[in-house]
Design a protein that fits this description.
Layout: E1 2-3, H1 18-24, H2 31-35, E2 37-38, E3 42-44, E4 48-49, E5 54-57, E6 64-70, H3 77-83, E7 89-94, H4 100-107, E8 113-120, E9 170-171, E10 175-179, H5 182-194, E11 207-213, H6 222-230, E12 241-243, E13 245-252, E14 269-275, H7 289-312, E15 318-324, H8 332-342, E16 353-359, E17 369-373, H9 376-379, H10 386-396, E18 403-405, H11 418-424, E19 429-433, H12 464-469, H13 473-492, H14 507-518, H15 524-529, H16 558-571, E20 573-575, H17 579-584, E21 598-602, E22 616-620, E23 623-628, H18 630-633, E24 647-649, E25 655-661, H19 664-690, H20 692-695
Parallel strand pairs: 5-9, 6-7, 7-8, 8-10, 14-15, 14-16, 16-19, 17-18
Antiparallel strand pairs: 1-25, 2-25, 3-10, 4-5, 4-24, 6-11, 11-25, 12-24, 13-15, 13-23, 17-19, 20-22, 21-22
Helix pairs in contact: 1-5, 7-13, 7-14, 7-16, 8-11, 10-13, 13-14
Domain Nicastrin small lobe: 44-218
Protein name: Nicastrin
Main location: membrane
Length: 707
């Protein structure tokens, strides 16, 4: 029973605690606000499903309630799991205690655990933390029983040794994260005020409790939830899950006819690839600094460095820039593009692909050395010229602060989009990374893979605009790598060596991108490069790179759209037409004519001392293509072993709140008194009703009465 008790021994009927409400920014002007303190900055772990499993967390349909217990150490678990007198408990964990050992003990807590909340530290744990598996995407890469089984399942190299697999566990209670801020302080004060006994004694009621709502609609696996989506017969059908998905971003140094799909006669393409997404244990919290941002910022900088040279002296081959979404979930984006190429549904086909250069995790090199990974099966095949591509990268790094090295032993490719191309056919390709074997990233796919992980820091006295322009060491390092990549791509595409000196990435642009993607997307540079209708999606905080579900409106996909607009501005051309004509450039063109370009009207820079902007139209070859697994909208094979089958459950609402809970004895007493009053009322009503003719009768006057 939820009870309105102010302090132990104090009068009832006032706010839970004026201090708690002031911390949470709440005023006591309603009955509900007098009972509950709503927690606004908590993020849930949600349920995900694939062909065989469901993972993640959920609450009961009415939310789960437990007495708050702040866990001080793993030894303190005994209070929660056995000795504590007031179960179930809502366990509050500092981030240092958010380990597999503790979470699995809570998972097996035999009904004494109602849920958990993890207080996210502002500093990264020194020992590292990765809730992903030790072998990411091991079942959907190229290595399998039919393709060098000795290399499968990380038999040679364990890529993510710190991976504890928590993101792939199923918990039958809710788990939320909360920042170390006012909400956390309100919880601590409530716990200290009510749940700690005096001098080690057992705490007395009322006790501080927490209620978490995160009930998930989908259960079992993807095939089950998709089937339930299809058999809903109501007028307004309620979906229970959605496929994960977004859009890939791609562009080319020479415009491609996107109207005619399939093979392009005479075209040979060098694909420059990277990934756009990341993930963590908690929903939509995926800063992805090293796992995603370091790679796609490097490729954006390389594309910009190549722009002028490829316009003046285009090489014999075309360079295709590809930014894949959903790679954290069994290569959603790359598998979709490869499928479309293989089935003549993309602007080119696999026969047009000459080679692939992929940029992986590249932000944590401790020296000038970076590593070029290649497939050992391809290296043994003389018809696949991988060594020439490696030599091209090595020569491109000459006279720069970068050394391109090859691992000294035979090992498979690290988790990478290129593996999906190799599944389709043998293609020369490499993956560039900052690790020789195991990841350098000690926070892979976690909430801690943020700007600090890349040592992205700024002097304390700088304004926001000054931080945007401040060239960090990380920006310089990535700019050097972008120069190497750009020169290697140009040479791989058949460009002349004489032009290489003109290809150089700009550290200032790299530092602006790092600031925008990892610190504050709502900055003056990003504002100038996006359409007016997109400005409201820019944030004062960093972006997050969880892929989301395919039903999300495209304009709300902030990272994808930002990369699209930046690639268009960095590789496109400003044309002198009006805003209306810019918007209509594709619409007014007959569908029978080839679609070579895309057009976007961007805000431009604000005039000095004015809010008015000088907008302009950008013409480029940049486009979006679907990043939804072929298992869904193309094949409808929800139990596929070849393609990603990840879905996200739907939910009604997510909410967290704290309040004071009365003892079970008081609840029973209140219930007994209530039942007694009810029975007494019924008995009294019966007696009054049976005697109504006596109690409520009125004497009639004689008919012949006169006045």
């Amino acid at each position: 029973m939820e009870n309105n008790v102010e302090r132990k021994g104090d009068d009832q009927g006032t706010c839970l605690d004026l201090t708690l409400f002031s911390l949470a920014g709440v005023s006591c002007n309603s009955v509900e606000q007098k009972i509950y303190v709503e927690l606004n900055n908590m993020v849930p772990c949600v349920r995900l499903l694939n062909a065989t499993h469901q993972i993640g967390c959920q609450s009961s349909i009415s939310g789960d309630v437990g007495v708050i217990h702040v866990l001080e150490s793993e030894a303190n678990l005994e209070w929660v799991l056995s000795t504590g007198p007031n179960p179930p408990y809502m366990v509050i964990l500092e981030s240092a205690l958010f380990t597999r050992s503790i979470m699995m003990k809570l998972k097996n807590g035999t009904g004494r655990v109602a849920g958990a909340a993890v207080v996210v530290s502002k500093t990264n744990p020194a020992e590292g933390f990765s809730p992903h598996t030790k072998c990411p995407n091991e079942n959907t890469g190229v290595y399998s029983e039919s393709y060098d089984p000795t290399m499968a399942h990380c038999n040679v190299t364990v890529w993510n040794p710190l991976g504890n697999g928590l993101s792939y566990e199923e918990f039958d209670f809710p788990i939320f994260s909360l920042n170390d801020d006012n909400d956390t302080e309100a919880i601590r004060q409530c716990y200290l005020g009510y749940n700690l006994g005096v001098n080690g004694s057992t705490p007395e009621y009322p006790l501080c409790a927490m209620q978490l709502f995160s009930h998930m609609h989908a259960v079992t696996d993807t095939a089950t939830c998709m089937r339930r989506n299809d058999i809903n017969f109501s007028i307004n059908p309620e979906m229970v899950c959605d496929p994960l998905g977004d859009y890939n971003v791609w562009g080319s140094t020479k415009p491609l006819n996107n109207t005619a799909k399939g093979h392009k006669e005479g075209e040979s393409m060098v694909i420059a690839a990277t990934r756009l997404d990341s993930r963590s244990f908690f929903w939509d919290v995926a800063p992805g600094a090293e796992s995603a941002v370091s790679g796609f910022v490097t490729l954006l900088a390389a594309a910009h460095a190549l722009h002028n040279v490829t316009q003046e002296a285009h090489p014999p081959r075309t360079i295709l820039y590809t930014f894949f979404q959903g790679e954290a979930f069994d290569y959603i984006g790359s598998s979709r593009m490869v499928y479309e190429m293989d089935h003549k549904q993309f602007a080119i086909d696999l026969d047009n692909v000459h080679s692939v250069v992929e940029i992986g995790q590249v932000g944590l090199r401790s020296s000038s050395e970076l590593w070029v990974h290649s497939d050992p099966v391809s290296r043994r095949n003389n018809s696949i010229n991988v060594s020439s591509l490696i030599d091209t990268l090595k020569s491109a790094a000459m006279n720069l602060n970068v050394t391109m090295s090859v691992p000294s032993f035979s090992q498979p490719l690290p988790p990478s989009s290129f593996q999906r191309f190799l599944r389709a056919r043998p293609i020369p390709g490499v993956v560039i990374a900052d690790h020789q074997s195991a990841f350098s990233n000690r926070y892979y796919e976690s909430i801690y893979d943020k700007a600090a992980n890349l040592n992205l820091t700024y002097p304390a006295n700088l304004t926001e605009d000054e931080q945007l322009e401040f060239v960090t060491e990380t920006a310089n390092a990535l700019a050097d790598l972008a120069t190497v990549v750009a020169r290697a791509l140009y040479k791989q595409a058949g460009g002349a060596d004489a032009q290489l000196i003109n290809i150089k990435a700009e550290p200032k642009i790299v530092t602006q991108m790092l600031y925008g993607f990892l610190v504050r997307s709502n900055n003056t540079w990003f504002q100038a490069l996006v359409p007016p209708e997109f400005k409201n999606f820019l944030s004062k905080l960093e972006c997050h790179y969880y892929v989301g579900v395919s039903q999300t409106p495209s304009h709300a996909r902030t990272p994808t759209r930002l990369v699209q607009y930046l690639l268009a501005n960095l590789t496109g051309t400003t044309i002198n037409i009006t805003k209306e004509n810019c918007h209509n450039s594709l619409i007014i063109k007959p569908s029978s004519l080839p679609q070579l370009y895309s057009y976007v009207w961007v805000q431009g820079v604000a005039s000095p001392n004015s809010t008015e902007r000088q907008g302009f139209c950008v013409r480029s070859s940049v486009r979006l293509s679907k990043a939804v697994s072929p298992a869904f909208d193309l094949l409808q094979e929800y139990s596929s072993k070849d393609y990603s089958t990840w879905t996200e459950s739907r939910w009604k609402f997510i909410k967290a709140r704290i309040f004071l809970v009365a003892s079970h004895d008081l609840e029973m007493l209140t219930l007994g008194v209530g039942v007694g009053i009810l029975l007494s009322s019924l008995l009294l009503t019966y007696i009054i009703s049976s005697k109504a003719d006596i109690l409520f009768s009125s004497g009639r006057e004689p008919a012949n009465a006169t006045y």
